[in-house]
Write a structure and sequence with these properties.
This protein is mainly β. 7% of the residues lie in helices and 37% in strands. It has 2 helices and 15 strands. The radius of gyration is 15 Å and the shape is globular.
């Protein structure tokens, strides 16, 4: 269950120098609280506020240094993890809409099934950016109502997680 989200609030985690705490609108009644290890790559929380991002929603909730995190902000990363860019849906994509991949339509798995069957761990190795920085899975292009999802600065041939 990967959706378009908008970061409404972001602040440094008080006890973890690499984490931001965020409130993200993914089209539900209440914004989700998510912790992301983005501080080394986005020096100010203001760099994230208002950003439209790709959010993995059906991960089991877990505490990251005491902060309850209910999902994951998806990012492109180079091989040695020294560069990270948020994956951004195009302008016009609707908050909360599911991000699909060409030829792979269907219902999202439940949190319980994802946790039990390690679905993300199976899917993750094939989730990448192509030569244009577009998010693909097994070569199938990501799609929203407004077009594909891209790395914010166009990072090509990178892993997405």
């Amino acid at each position: 269950d990967i959706r378009v989200g908008k970061i409404l609030k972001a602040w440094p985690h008080p006890e973890a120098e690499k984490l931001y705490c965020e409130e993200i609108d993914v089209g539900e009644e209440q914004p989700r609280q998510i912790a992301s290890g983005l501080r080394p790559f986005y020096p100010s929380a203001d760099d994230l506020i208002g950003k439209t991002v790709m959010v993995l929603c059906n991960l089991k909730s877990r505490k990251l240094v005491g902060f309850p995190s209910h999902g994951m902000v998806m990012c492109a990363s180079n091989a040695d993890h020294t560069a990270v860019e948020t994956m951004e849906p195009p302008a016009g994509a609707q908050i909360g809409e599911r991000i699909m991949f060409e030829g792979y339509d269907g219902e999202a798995e439940t949190e319980a099934k994802v946790a039990k069957k390690e679905v993300f761990e199976t899917v993750a190795p094939d989730l990448k950016t192509n030569a244009e920085g577009i998010c693909v899975w097994k070569g199938a292009i990501s799609k929203t109502s407004a077009g594909p999802v891209k790395a914010s600065k166009g990072m090509a041939n990178a892993q997405v997680a």
